[in-house]
Amino acid sequence: MNKSPKAFLISDISCVALLLVFLFLLPAKLFKSPTSFIIEANNGNLLSAAIASDGQWRFPVADSVPVKFKDCIIAFEDKRFYNHLGVDFLAMSRAMRQNLKAKSVVSGGSTLTMQVIRLSRKQDRTLWQKLYEIILAFRLELKYSKEEIIGLYAANAPFGSNVVGLEAASWRYYGRDAKTLSWGEMATLAVLPNSPSLVHPGKNATRLIKKRNDLLDKLVKLKYIDQSTANLSKLEPVPGKPLPLPQNAPHLLNRFKVERANLKINSTRIKSTLNEDIQLKVNSILKRYNNRYRANDINNISTLILDAKTGNVVSYVGNIYQPENADLQSHVDMIKAPRSPGSTLKPLLYASMLNDGFILPHTLIPDVPTQIAGYSPQNYDLGYDGAIAADKALSRSLNIPAVKMLQQYKYERFYDKLKKLGIGTLNQPADHYGLSLILGGSEVTMWDLANTYMSMVRTLNHFNTYKGLYNPEDYKQATYFETDKKESQDYQRNSFLDHGAIWATFNAMEEVMRPGDEGLWEQFSSSQRVAWKTGTSFGFRDAWAVGLTPNYVVCVWVGNADGEGRPGLVGIEAAAPVLFDIFKLLPNGKWFETPKTKLKKIKVCKQSGYKAGENCIDIVEELMPTAGEKTTDCPFHKLIHLDRTATFRVTDQCESVTNMQHKSWFILPPAMEYYYKIKNSDYKSLPPFMAGCDISGGNNVMELIYPKNGATVYIPLELNGSRGKIVLNAAHRNQSSKIYWHIDNEYVATTTNYHQLAISPPPGKHTLTLVDENGERLVQVFTVLDKERKQKD
Fold first, then answer.
1. pTM reported for the whole predicted model
2. To the nearest whole number, what is the mean pLDDT of the chain?
């Protein structure tokens, strides 16, 4: 009897529907259980792991399964695995006969494919469920390769306790990667998924050994191994209690957990860029120093190493790792923590001023007592040089010259430059930081700081590569996981800092002979050239050291995560020794190439470091950043007029012009001169005027060092409750000259040689008048506060 067209249509639709159901039986993602977060080193070895959110140790599916495990699990569970399509009917019929004969379940007959389905479904196994699993197993075989199926099994099989998957089991029971296990060790793991609740390391050891040995005999029978290998493997002990997993980069692991979504990485496992050998050695170095520093209640230490050639993270140690001691706060990742940078931003200001044509490398910068709008910076050693070359001020990390430089450069401009260079923690307006920006008045993270210096290194390294042009890619942040980097070819003529400015800055940072607060330089012997800078924050809360070569940038921080300051917590003593110990681990390399086309020979006044002016005598020609041509001529060399004996200064009112000697003279302002000649014995003060010469008007012979004109000062109470005093300080070109002091037109005192005066004027505005024995006058005003002002830390 012929079927009607309608019947054929229904039959076709039914067949198509069944086909679609069959095709879509498997979910897009077979296993949805959470997996452990895994960080691997660049050689593939495990660095750190964190337990999955459901409390299980479950690694993501591996790229490959060790051959030994394949052989063991196939021999133990499914010897015809490669010859069936998900169901082994021979094994199933044998199991049914054995179970009927024994009147209990003594054999399963499930294939590895069926076990993968069962592991993914986690449902009670009724007869209908088993039939459904057979269909799903067949579907699984059509969608996945045999290697993928055995990979799914290896990643999701239970291995006892809270251990899931071969990789997790290998680390928990043997403390190493599954690829390194012996036949005896792999056979032990292969028998665990068969009855993980009854047999696992630390429980029923006798039964576990028997099951392992039976499998080893089976491997011999199937000719996977020979008898001698099996016999030796049987002698191996089975593991005891589970072992802790490696925690060699726990802070990077936590960072990855937080950033994974934004990084658009699907897996909870990443192969990082970390060098395992360096990471472990740095961990050891930091632990050694931490044990020493904790005697002074300095509990935390961290370091970051970047590869400047590749832009990769080589070592990431966010803190010492001692979770058992909660008081140490070792869980805090100090690489990400905003902290005061101390003096570590000074090289960036130096480079910016060279880049923008404000200074030359050796330009003299004032180093005298300074008060700016109530702000009084101090050098670490509380001393003054009067004037010091900019590069020396940087290498000695002097605060007052740095503030003077920022005052000239403008803190608003420097604030914008820091943001462009990658300092991302400046979340307040520029006025909030002011001039304290250069002395650690802001916050930075070690990540931003190290990346900023790496960007400078990469820019200079690529001088020849990009033929003098700049690539914005050089200012991209470092990466800590392996990616397919595609470098942009969008080269530009200008950058935030040019090659010449960076080169000169690194030269200044290479100067290690640092007196004063950094006088311990001799202990830092290094076989390679290193440009470096230390920093100490206010209140001794943070000790920093940043070092760089053409190949690496190393940043070290020492302190307390809770911000507690400690005596002795200074960069040169706490962080610098760590920095140089780390550099000893790193391979040597050539120093930076000189970017000759980005430098120009400029005639420089040797004494002042300024561009040589017409009155400069000792002139040298040096390679300088090209922007140096925009700097001003030397302001300190001036032409003076002497009598015929060159003993006295004269004017045309007391000496004939024809009898005068005209000579160039290095003249610093009185306040700078006062301190400069103490440390520079070759400095020659101006000769005195010849008797009878009228020098009134225009002769700057006196300068008030403190307080500056218009300053506001506060006079605190002494310990006994009495009102304290302020110390007025002045400089006179003629040190033996007398100065007569007047306050509000009333005579107070006379000083000779050292012009200092301690007074306690009442609150309010005051006029200070200084008169020397030649009648020269200096008039300035200052205000004394009438109540205590709030001090800023």
1. 0.85
2. 86
